[in-house]
Amino acid sequence: MPRLFALLPLVAALAVRPASSQVIRSYEGLDRSAGEAGYATFGLTFTGRSGNSDYSEFDLSGAFGYRGERHWLRFYPSWHLRRSSGETQENAHSGHLRHSYFFNARTRSFAFVQLQDDESLDVVRRFLLGGGIRRNLVAAEGGGVDLGVGVMWEEELVETGEETSVMRGTNLLVVNGTAGSVALTGTAFFQPLLDDWGDHRISGSGTATVPLGSAWGLDVSLSWRRDSRPPAEVEKDDVTLTVGIRFTVD
Q1: What is the distance of C-alpha 217 from the center of its chain?
Q2: What stretch of H or E contains 246?
Q3: Considering the entire predicted model, what is its pTM?
Q4: Other CB atoms within 10 A of residue 111 CB
Q5: Rounded CA gap, 36 and 72, in Å?
Q6: Residues 191, 199: Cα–Cα separation, whole Å
Q7: 126-153: pLDDT as tens digits
Q8: Coil, strand, or helix at residue 14?
Q9: Are the CB atoms for 87 and 106 separated by under 8 Å?
Q10: Of 1, 32, 193, 202, which is the most exposed, with the fewest CB atoms less than 10 Å away?
């Protein structure tokens, strides 16, 4: 049965950002909500503040997909904007297209193409093309543990005009579970340069969704990302804590 999911984080209460590093976006929370056949997910956060510091922050994301018996195709668009004192501090866009083929109940392939830009990271264009295999290592009611291993080609153009093309690993660990009625999702990424593992990107995130009735839920997410060799004047680590409201329509 097709499902329509509307994810509306009405409160983005806390945001801790020491600096920005290369963004690794996780779509596991959106995938976990995917129904059979066609579905759509929409996410929106907005934070505003005035007084000692004036800023506004807006993040729009979503997922559009179709899940069949063997094939699973989905597209994830996103846009992030942050303005302070009338000036744009962050402006980032990305589009991610992904396909999976289910060999059996526990093993599937993944193939993806992604295009993004990020003003705060001095990234004019970042293009990814990759794929691999994902295996469910531990199956459990309401969750489990998945491991994904693959490779990707990365082409990146930064503000200085420097352009690079490299091959990276794209490795993923996902842990889904429950604590009573609370749904828990944890993800970890490791993306090393294939011929130089000292050049790597690491990401870890965790989300807890607390039900607030049959259709509403409270999302609390904490994420950390690290780029071992970021562009000039961009720090290595990025930490973000967000709180939002989720609304689901079946």
Answers
A1: 19
A2: strand 237-249
A3: 0.72
A4: 15
A5: 9
A6: 9
A7: 999 999 999 999 988 777 999 999 999 9
A8: coil
A9: no
A10: 1
Q: How far apart are CA 23 and CA 40, in angstroms?
A: 23
* Per-residue pLDDT tens over the stretch 33-80: 566 777 777 666 666 655 555 667 777 777 788 888 899 998 989 888
Give the C-alpha separation, 232 to 162, whole Å.
11
| Tokens of residue 227, six digits | 């780029």
Confidence band of 98 (pLDDT split at 50, 70, 90): very high
Residue type, 162: E
Using an 8 Å Cβ cutoff, are 89 and 101 in contact?
no
Contact indicator for 191, 201 with CB cutoff of 8 Å: yes
**Residue 112 near residue 98 (C-beta atoms within 8 A):** yes
Tokens encoding 115: 């295009």
Structure tokens belonging to residue 129: 């093309």
Helix (H) or strand (E) holding 139: strand 123-140
> What amino acid occupies position 229?
R
